[in-house]
Amino acid sequence: MRRIVACLALVLAAPLGAQAQSGPPHAWLFGTWTGGLYPAPARPTAAQCLAHPTVIFTQDVVLRATLMDVIYLQREIETALTTAGSTEIRFVAAAPVGNGLLGVAAGPGAPGFGCESPDVLHVQRHGENEIIFPGCADFPNPLVRCPSP
Question: Signal peptide span per the entry (predicted)?
Answer without folding.
Answer: 1-20
